[in-house]
Amino acid sequence: MIRTYTGKTVNPLALKTTDIDIEDIAHHLSCYNRFNGALVCPVNVACHSVLVARVVGYFVEDSTVEMQALSHDATEAYLGDVTKWLKASPAMAGYRIAEQDAHNIIMDKFCLPRELHPSIENADRVAVTFEGQMGFNDMNWPGLKKYPRLTNDEMMAIGDHYCFREWQQSKDLFLETYRDLVMRINFGENSNAEGY
Known about the structure:
Blueprint: E1 2-3, E2 9-10, H1 22-30, H2 45-59, H3 63-70, H4 76-79, H5 84-87, H6 93-109, H7 118-135, H8 152-158, H9 167-187
Helix pairs in contact: 1-9, 2-3, 2-7, 2-8, 2-9, 3-9
């Protein structure tokens, strides 16, 4: 069992929709740094999530997909952040099952499709590439061997959204983005998602 920022006691291996709270997600993600904390200029998961949502929004005009993008790492609020290389190892099979279960509950809570839109994987790659280059202050950091160079369109999608913010700023930005997307979904082009 874990205690969340809002004071809930939850079992991260058996989450229920009533356990999920956007304040917990925003707070917890803003306190986790990406790249196992190795970046010279730290990037937290909340700010990363906003960047992924903004990149998706540049290419796909669908606020529900942007909300999925904002929530794509929300499981880490309950399970912690694990580097993708470790997560992919055979020893982490149980974690991957727990992560999928938590993902499904979070998507259900926010009335979002469980299967992520294909654009989110690409936007995540764009964010990883950019964050690695800027965070390590190395345009050729070793992780780039797995990723193609960013295109001009992808750099335009990133725009002036640099993800190097302190945790409180990141939390506020995450919640502001969330609330904006809720308004757009409920009163805009996607009225099928509700319950936020």
